[in-house]
């Protein structure tokens, strides 16, 4: 998938490099998962992975201008979600980040690198490219096999308490 | 779509349970952070987090959990995650945190915890008295001519370089620097406890500064006057106010300490969670002469807030308290504390960012070191009682704290080197 090949089945989101944009990112992923009947568990993992990646760009990417500095193109293909995330930030390949040390007590263990560690575990086929001053991250998210069907009404995180009654 | 995060508190047994529904992500996790912070300020040191309705957690949420886990562990308490949703469980396991968060931290040493020798309630405040170092003594010395403050007429002859090792507590007017010239424009309130010293430079824009002993380095302060005590404390007094009854006045804690020490003159270091402290600090170094306490000149000399400050901070207070009649050598140093005319004292306070205090018996030095190293020093002031009829703000107030106290023994001559 390339940037200029956004077909009708693709969802596209442009984000400013601003922490307040995380709300829009979350709403966008929820909406995408609802439309594409992506199961709740997969959706939650997509949310976590994309938040880690986008927050990294916002915090450390030094994007100038901040407006529309981050873009996400995402679509469902069968039992996979395929996406590309690209940004105008400084060179950063998340795949270069060494895995965190997960041994030792939680009381004194450093927490650096945890976000990227989660990304690498939650996503598949991650590929990085630096091209024309942009970071491109391509990835696949396989739908979790144990929950292949979407929830009715597509509310992946809804905490419903008998709201069918009226 | 469910938006954001909802936190519901359920009080059961001795520890509350927070039910967190929604997303523990980079945006919403700070709400949980604030909720946990409020529990700590209530003095609650054991808490369960029920994450059964938590949709997912990101590394930002994990940081909040781990930070809280460490804070509770540091005060001997516990934070426990219970019933995590599968999505949360998966992420916590991935982060290598699962088992540690689901079970309370096991204390490494099972050393016997000292029990209080006396516990009592006075009004809405609970006190516990512990033996600290039975038989210990404090040898104290007053250096400098405190009466020179009123005329702001200190000079080079008054200056003295004071060394502040870990078995000394001290307070007075001073500045960090090795000679009088370097310090003359900056003399202000200072205090030193357990090898850590904090000073408030007497400059309009000066921010508080501090030094911590490390290895062979021992902090030193150039002083104009000081009270300096060497030795150790005999008792530890813990106090805690009933949250529904409001905070406890400083003078009540001082009176309780006087009673516990059973001595007319008591040296005291207190670490307490502040509900607001009241005091003043010098705006100008008191070396050029002037009528410091005259109105309106006093406004140029002293920074005084008519309302309490640092209300959500932790403070370290160093000082001396006495019941009248007081020893002549101390008289010029002492001021009224609260509304009881027989209770006198002189106290300096250093305010830090909030850190919860461990309950029960506690050692002074680690608490002070931790505050200096991680607490973020906010300022140093001389504590005051503002008893002006009608407009007075009263005195400093606290929600809970610890006072290390000891009867003051001999007062050596100023020339005697500690």
Number of helical regions of chain A: 3
Q: How much β-strand is present in the residues of chain B?
A: 35-45%
How far apart the termini of chain A lie comes to: 45 Å
Largest β sheet strand count, sense and barrel closure of chain A: 5 strands, antiparallel
Sequence stretches where pLDDT stays below 50 over 5 or more residues of chain A: 147-166
pLDDT averaged residue by residue of chain B: 89
Tertiary shape of chain B: globular
What is the helix content of chain B? 10-25%
Q: Give me the number of helical elements of chain B.
A: 9
Counting helices, strands and paired strands, the structural category of chain B is: alpha+beta
**Strand neighbour order, sheet with most strands of chain A:** 1-2-3-5-4
How would you characterize the overall build of this protein?
The complex is a heterodimer of chains A (166) and B (418). Helix content of chain A is 27%, strand content 23%. Chain A contains three helices and five strands; from the N terminus they run βααββαββ. In chain A, a hairpin with a 2-residue loop joins strand 4 (124-131) and strand 5. In chain A, helix 1 (22-35) packs antiparallel against helix 2. Chain B is of the alpha+beta class and 418 residues long. Chain B has helices at residues 29-41, 59-74, 86-94, 98-102, 180-183, 250-261, 298-301, 328-331, 364-374; strands at 5-12, 15-24, 46-50, 54-57, 78-82, 118-122, 125-131, 138-143, 160-163, 168-175, 188-193, 196-199, 209-212, 220-231, 235-241, 248-249, 265-276, 279-282, 302-304, 314-323, 335-336, 343-352, 377-383, 397-407. In chain B, the strands form three sheets. In chain B, strands 6, 7, 15, 16, 17, 18, 19, 20, 21, 22, 23 and 24 form a twelve-stranded antiparallel β-sheet that branches. In chain B, strands 8, 9, 10, 11, 12, 13 and 14 form a seven-stranded antiparallel β-sheet that branches. In chain B, strands 1, 2, 3, 4 and 5 form a five-stranded mixed β-sheet that branches. Chain B is globular, with a radius of gyration of 23 Å. Chain B starts with a strand and ends in an 11-residue tail after the last strand. Mean pLDDT of chain B is 89; it is low at 414-418. The interface between A and B is medium-sized, with 34 and 33 residues.
């Amino acid at each position: 998938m390339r940037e200029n090949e956004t077909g009708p089945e693709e969802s596209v989101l442009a984000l400013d490099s601003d922490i307040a944009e995380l709300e829009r990112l979350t709403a966008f992923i929820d909406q995408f998962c609802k439309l594409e009947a992506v199961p709740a568990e997969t959706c939650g993992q997509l949310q976590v992975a994309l938040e880690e990646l986008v927050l990294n760009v916002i915090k450390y990417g030094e994007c100038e201008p901040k407006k529309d500095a981050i873009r996400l193109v995402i679509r469902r293909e069968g039992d996979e979600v395929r996406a590309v995330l690209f940004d105008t930030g400084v060179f950063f390949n998340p795949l270069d980040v060494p895995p965190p040390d997960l041994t030792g007590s939680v009381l004194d263990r450093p927490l650096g690198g945890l976000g990227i560690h989660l990304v690498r575990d939650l996503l598949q086929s991650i590929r990085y490219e630096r091209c024309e001053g942009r970071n491109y991250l391509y990835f696949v998210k396989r739908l979790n096999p144990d929950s292949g069907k979407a929830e009715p009404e597509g509310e992946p995180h809804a905490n419903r308490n008998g709201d069918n009654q009226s | 779509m469910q938006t954001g995060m909802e936190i519901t508190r359920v009080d059961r047994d001795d520890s509350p349970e927070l039910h967190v529904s929604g997303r523990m992500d980079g945006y919403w996790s700070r709400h949980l952070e604030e909720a946990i912070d409020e529990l700590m300020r209530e003095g609650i040191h054991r808490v369960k987090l029920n994450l059964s309705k938590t949709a997912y957690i990101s590394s930002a949420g994990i940081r909040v959990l781990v930070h809280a886990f460490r804070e509770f562990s540091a005060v001997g308490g516990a934070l426990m995650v219970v019933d995590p949703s599968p999505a949360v469980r998966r992420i916590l396991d991935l982060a290598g945190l699962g088992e540690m968060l689901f079970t309370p931290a096991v204390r490494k040493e099972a050393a016997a915890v000292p029990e209080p020798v006396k516990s009592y309630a006075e009004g809405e405040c609970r006190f516990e008295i512990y033996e600290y170092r039975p038989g210990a003594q404090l040898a104290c010395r007053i250096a400098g001519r405190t009466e020179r403050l009123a005329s702001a007429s200190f000079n080079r002859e008054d200056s003295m370089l004071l060394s502040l090792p870990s078995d000394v507590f001290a307070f007075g007017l001073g500045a960090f620097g090795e000679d009088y010239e370097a310090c003359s424009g900056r003399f202000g309130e200072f205090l030193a406890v357990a090898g850590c010293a904090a000073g408030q430079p007497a400059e309009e824009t000066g921010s508080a500064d501090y030094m911590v002993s490390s290895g062979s380095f021992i902090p030193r302060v150039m002083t104009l006057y000081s009270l300096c005590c060497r030795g150790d404390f005999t008792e530890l007094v813990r106090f805690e106010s009933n949250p529904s009854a409001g905070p406890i006045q400083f003078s009540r804690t001082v009176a309780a300490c006087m009673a516990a020490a059973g001595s007319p003159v008591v040296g005291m270091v207190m670490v307490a969670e502040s509900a607001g402290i009241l005091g003043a600090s010098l705006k100008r170094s008191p070396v050029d002469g002037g009528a410091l306490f005259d109105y309106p000149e006093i406004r140029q000399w002293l920074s005084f807030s008519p309302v309490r400050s640092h209300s959500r901070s932790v403070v370290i207070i160093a000082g001396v308290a006495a019941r009248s009649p007081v020893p002549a050598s101390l008289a010029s140093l002492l001021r009224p504390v609260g509304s009881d005319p027989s209770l006198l004292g002189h106290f300096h306070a250093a305010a830090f960012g909030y850190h919860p205090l461990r309950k029960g018996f506690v050692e002074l030095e680690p608490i002070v070191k931790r505050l200096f190293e991680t607490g973020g020093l906010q300022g140093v002031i001389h504590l005051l009682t503002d008893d002006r009829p009608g407009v007075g703000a009263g005195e400093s107030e606290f929600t809970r704290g610890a006072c290390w106290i000891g009867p003051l023994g001999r007062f050596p001559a100023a020339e005697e080197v500690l």
